[in-house]
TrEMBL record:
Domain HTH rpiR-type: 9-85
Keyword Transcription regulation found: yes
Name the UniProt record assigns to this protein: DNA-binding MurR/RpiR family transcriptional regulator
Keyword Transcription regulation: yes
Pfam family for this entry, one: HTH_6
Keywords: DNA-binding, Glycolysis, Transcription, Transcription regulation
Source organism per UniProt: Comamonas odontotermitis
Region (Disordered) location: 76-99
GO molecular function, one term: DNA binding
Amino acid sequence: MHHSKPHANSFVRRVRSQLEALSTAERRLADFMLEFPGELASYAASELAALAGVSNATVSRFIRRLGYASYEEAKRDVRREKESGSPLFQAAKSAAGETPPASRIATHLEQSQSNLARTFAQLNDMQMQDIVTALVKAPRILIFGTRGSHGFARYLRWQMLQVIPCVVAIPDAGESLGEHLVGLAPQDCLVVFGMRRQTGQMSGLLEAAGKMGCKILFISDAMSPDRREATWSIQCQCMGPGPLDNHVAVMALCDLISTMVVESAGAAGRKRLAAIELLHEDLDEL
């Protein structure tokens, strides 16, 4: 099984499947549920509504949208998932409000460590090796990211370029996508950074690449909808202690992928890396 996804009928999967069709209030509730899914097992519907800043009616309507007959049925589902030990269901938000942090640095460190642990807990060696093997064998690799995700695309491309010759981060300034997508084949790979608030280019890119049959690694956050075109999906925990998302886990995933790629590239990769170092010396670049 390629996809790093929960069971098709899991609570988190049900919420994520509805994200693109929600009203403003329902989306606020959905975002809260995805950050703190375990809360449903502990609170009454009215308490959950207060925590998420929505009405009781919004909670009831949303629970029905997820396919549950009642709030109690949804709570039982969440309780089963919480008992399975998933770290995603262990995070909690206090109904009495947040305690002012004694140290901003300590708060950021704690959140970063939590995001990192919860993200890596969903990974497994077999899945990661499948991804890395496909990348190393791919004749072409395209890495897509816009807005805040553009930096991740550039970083991952730069690291893999040391051992793989044909890696391109798209789109570059002023570029369209058609010139890059033309000729994509099933052996090629597309890596898409799909953290929330992407541009409209991403959906068109995924649809086109899906039709071409290339392998797609979709890296997103817990607040972003899934994509049916993805061969592999990894959701990074990006909750921040302040107004900004925390992307420590995304960078760590990039480092994991690039390190595994360098190791898996074997003799050909080492030969390319050695040639690059010689050119650095000849050109006096560093």
